[in-house]
Amino acid sequence: MTPAERAAALPRDPFLGTPVRHVVRDAIGRAVRRAIASGVLPAPDGAEALETLIRGIEVEVPASSEHGDYASNVAMKSSKLLKRGPAQIAAAIADELRAEAKERLHGGAGSLGPIDGAEVAGPGFLNMRLRAGLLADLLDAMIAAPDAWGHLAPEGSAATTRVNVEFVSANPTGPLTVGNARGAFVGDLLARVLEAAGQEVTREYYFNDFGEQVRRLGESVIALRDGREVAEDGYKGDYVATLAAEIPPEVADRARNAREAAVSEHDKDEIAVIGAWASERIRVGIQSSLAALGVEFDVWRSEGSLYTEGHVERAVGKLRAAGWLEERDGALWFKSTAFGDDKDRVIKKSTGAYTYFGSDIGYIEEKFGRGFDHLVYVWGVDHHGTVARVRNAGEALGYEKSRMEMLLVAWVRFVRDGVEMSMSKRAGTFVTLDDLLEEIGVDSARWYFASRSASTAIDFDIEAATARNSENPVYYAQYAHARMQSILRKANAEGMTVAAEIGDLVDDLSRPDAALARVVVRLPEVVEDAAAHHETQGITTYASELAAAFSAFYRDAKVVDSGAPELSAKRLRLVQAAATSLAASLRLLGISAPAEM
RNA sequence: GCGCCCGUAGCUCAGUGGAUAGAGCGUUAGGUUGCGGACCUAAAGGUCGUGGGUUCGAGUCCCGCCGGGCGCACCA
């Protein structure tokens, strides 16, 4: 499936895909306008100021439910502009919110508003209660279209944003190690979140298919084939010996017959032929390792293709025409300092060979040439020094800096029995990604990385991640889901039916049903935040909260109760909604939502 | 030396400038004649590295300092 097909195939629903807080925000905006129109609040100087104020209205779910379902700091924020105290502004807005709710209730026509009650608290917070019927409508709608839940609907007629996420991009000179794991998960999780938020995402892997590292690999394989020792700077892992033993006859023939006058870098001598063969074998292995993690790429782009297809040359021509290049000391320099960099950067060495940076420039041109609105690079923190020059080059090529974003992923120290495990591909002392996953499981690993900010260095405690018990939060969320399904199964076996509508089940705040429903309905906001900040911790936090909310509900409310069939039927519907939301949040993370454990 | 990232509970980590700084694990004390105890309830545990500043309000923004990581190539 292409990225465009995938984006189109994700079911979306305008009602389910709109975070409730947007609806609340709009209601506050209307209230502010009414209060100003009626003269209760003064008009700010200039119409533009009012629009800015309304656009900037912030609505959040307060930490404590005593503060209502939603709260806004709009009164404190606009105090200066409106020249009134926060409490006075908040009171005026609350009045208008109540007035609107009342008018709608008695107006008959049109939809009901989102707010049922509003009050002023603390230094000027506006605390609001959701109209209970809105919750019931949402819960009913998500059960009718469970696959659309968690996917945001586009606002207005905005065109779909096309994003390229390049990640992993480890050179195929050895199997992926645990060191590559974080980048793989972070990139994939970001891609999933952006897709859920309504963007079209291409997952891309960039790799070296020629050059120094591939030659070293070739030399190492040949050395072992010939019974010699691998050179000091060669590759020494066990996989090299495997490759040496498995060189197919036709590759060996081609290697023997390779000539300096060959047509491409890949067959100019024996080392190049063997190196190219070995690295392609490794690349295929990497592809299947990643697939086992649930990470699949749309595009595998080789560095060499950027030259054979003329992208590098084209980009260089463009930079030259714009005056951003300079010959100096026999090399070709990009005037990066003109864009604020510390120093200018070489793109073509005096030997005539391009640098890696030269390839990067061609790649920028190639990517934007494919029509992306936004490029995301998921890099290790050790690459932070190259961020500025690549974005500068992009700007010099005519693309705004804001369209290129580098997400730097911090180090992971893998610790076993309190001792850090050393990782060196050359020395052959590393733990492969395959080994790690076999030990701890994909779900557990995904949760581990999803729940931590990519920019923070972390210690990965292998024992803790391996534990298949309550020490591991992923099982807590999965367990809650299994329990929900178990309840639904049991009810079904006893011949109980699920109610056709939630009705007033979630209206009474003193009942356990109301608290659970309010968590269930929050997922779209969580997705929106995750996409906006390019972070996934919010989703794991949400899944944990939902699981905890369900546990509390389960303790306080009897769902399957033959003595109260009507209440049971409604609660079964609520459980169904909770399961839908929990499954959707796990699906977003690429984690399974088992029906039984 | 210069630049970037980080410093939050015993441990591992959350925390779009907002209300009493949270979660899991660990520790302590309890809970199942009820739909899955891989569960639940409660308690103890914090000078948010440190000193200033910005403002109605700072863990969050700005500056200095301390501590840790990374980067400063005609390497890849």
Write up what this structure looks like.
- By secondary structure, the chain is of the alpha/beta class.
- It has 3 domains: 20-136, Gyrase A, domain 2; 161-304 and 410-466, Rossmann fold (3-Layer(aba) Sandwich), CATH 3.40.50; 471-588, Isoleucyl-tRNA Synthetase, Domain 1.
- It is built from 24 helices and 15 strands.
- It has helices spanning 3-9, 20-37, 47-55, 74-77, 79-82, 86-107, 132-144, 178-196, 212-225, 238-245, 249-257, 270-292, 303-308, 311-321, 356-369, 384-396, 433-440, 442-450, 462-466, 473-493, 512-520, 523-533, 537-556, 565-588, and strands at residues 59-60, 70-72, 115-121, 125-130, 162-166, 200-207, 299-302, 325-328, 331-334, 345-348, 374-380, 404-409, 412-416, 419-420, 458-461.
- A 5-stranded parallel sheet has the order 7-6-5-11-12, sandwiched between helices. A 4-stranded antiparallel sheet has the order 1-2-4-3.
- Helix 16 links the parallel strand 11 and strand 12.
- Helix 2 packs across helix 6 and helix 23 (537-556) runs antiparallel to helix 24 (565-588).
- It binds one RNA strand of 76 nucleotides through strand 9, strand 10, helix 16, strand 15 and helix 20.
